[in-house]
Amino acid sequence: MGTSSVDFDPRTEIAVCRAGKECYILADSSKFTIRPFIDKVMRIDEIDHLISDDALPQEDILALQNAGIEVIIGSNPIS
Length: 79
What we know:
This protein is an alpha/beta fold. The chain contains two helices and five strands, in the order βαβββαβ.
């Protein structure tokens, strides 16, 4: 498990995440159910925090937390 990118040059995401003290990933819940062909950017153990929406399945939340990642869930005020 890790992050991926549809950017033409995923080295940008790698450099940005490694430049900071902590790595935050913003990914809506659809990123956990759709598996398109995209380049792997970084390993799961390089991520400190993940921000997602309240549709993220509980099993994914638990897997991320078990990997040592703080999961931050935001609510979607637009119906």
